[in-house]
Write a sequence for this structure.
């Protein structure tokens, strides 16, 4: 039996060099696999980004609300693009240093490859912090709109967001300022994980608030025995979608804990690959979900049909978003946009038939006045 330490078993290389090349190859495989998954997710993000741009431009850029949404969508996508480009560049430089730097001794190449990632880490960390804060702000805005501008409903998420912003500034300062910081040896190691925990809390709080509003709406619809089907999504479906996607996003964000808790499963373990993929794809997920929220909101307000309302008899329907009054003589609707709190109500006739926020498809001879 041939020994694995013989020159024949190692292709003429010494055992030390053979083990080094094996570890370099494993490292390259892990990093390339992570970049591939990140690239696939970024491609999907690109599709959502284009749809989001279309939905915003379709509504026009005259209102400050739409301009802010455009800035948010472009900023999040720009951050995701920068992070992906940096990751791809770092992997290519790693391959160059580990396999193609023939003038550098084999055992010194690992240090050069690691320096590439270390040089870009402050930039990556700063971009991650910025995108996380922007994403949380979008979630709070969506919750605020669903609660019709009630500040009391978003006090807790806003407090968590403000706290996360403070720790994000501390985290970025710790990376960018190489001078001595008062108490930096105690605060800096905990700043990043604290900001992440506060962000998870913000997402869970917003999702629970939206879920409570969805539960109230569903309970009200059942009590009033309102039926009818629509070939497009109803208000109940869209709120359920926001709740379900919110919990999924919170779970994915919770999975990023592996980025802050160092656990070394060993380079041969499958968990090593899973942890690397989670670290890279998390950067894209943070931008995708807020973009999807904006797409859902815009297309709900511009393209989705109202769903039918068929009360058993003439009655008044009061909910958190609208009131339905029976009008036997005139068929008209008075709308106030639910997403744009403070906008003036307007009356339109049946032939105009436009969508403004979460509104039911009213039965014949009814008028709808939104609260």
């Amino acid at each position: 039996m041939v020994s694995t330490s013989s020159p024949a078993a190692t292709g003429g290389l010494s055992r030390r060099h053979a083990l080094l090349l094996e570890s370099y190859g494993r490292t390259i495989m892990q990093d390339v696999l992570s970049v591939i998954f990140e690239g696939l997710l970024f491609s999907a993000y690109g599709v959502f980004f284009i749809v989001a741009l279309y939905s915003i431009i379709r509504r026009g850029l005259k209102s400050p609300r739409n301009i802010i949404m455009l800035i948010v969508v472009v900023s999040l996508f720009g951050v995701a693009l920068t992070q992906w480009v940096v990751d791809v560049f770092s992997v290519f430089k790693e391959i160059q240093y580990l396999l193609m730097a023939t003038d550098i001794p084999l055992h010194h190449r690992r240090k050069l490859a690691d320096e590439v990632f270390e040089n870009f880490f402050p930039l990556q960390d700063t971009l991650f912090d910025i995108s996380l804060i922007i994403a949380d702000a979008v979630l709070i805005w969506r919750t605020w709109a669903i609660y019709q501008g009630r500040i009391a409903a978003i006090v807790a998420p806003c407090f968590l967001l403000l706290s996360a912003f403070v720790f994000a500034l501390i985290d970025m300062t710790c990376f960018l300022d190489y001078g001595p910081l008062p108490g930096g040896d105690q605060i800096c190691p905990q700043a990043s994980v604290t900001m992440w925990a506060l962000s998870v809390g913000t997402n869970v709080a917003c999702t629970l608030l939206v879920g409570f509003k969805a539960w109230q709406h569903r309970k009200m619809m059942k009590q009033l025995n309102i039926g009818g089907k629509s070939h497009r999504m109803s208000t109940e479906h869209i709120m359920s979608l926001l709740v379900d996607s919110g919990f999924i996003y919170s779970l994915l964000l919770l999975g990023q804990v592996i980025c802050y808790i160092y656990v070394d499963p060993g380079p041969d373990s499958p968990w090593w690959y899973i942890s690397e993929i989670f670290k890279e794809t998390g950067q894209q997920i943070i931008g995708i979900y807020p973009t999807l929220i904006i797409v859902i909101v815009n297309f709900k307000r511009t393209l989705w049909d109202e769903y039918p309302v068929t009360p058993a008899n003439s009655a008044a329907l009061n909910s958190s978003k609208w009131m339905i009054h029976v009008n036997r003589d005139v068929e008209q609707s008075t709308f106030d946009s639910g997403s744009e709190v403070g906008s003036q109500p307007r009356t339109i006739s049946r032939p105009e038939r436009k969508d403004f926020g979460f509104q039911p498809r009213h039965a014949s001879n009814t008028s709808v006045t939104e609260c």
About this structure: Confidence is low (pLDDT under 50) at residues 229-233, 301-371. The helical segments are 15-59, 64-100, 109-146, 155-176, 184-223, 235-254, 270-302. The radius of gyration is 27 Å. The CA atoms of residues 332 and 351 lie 9 Å apart.
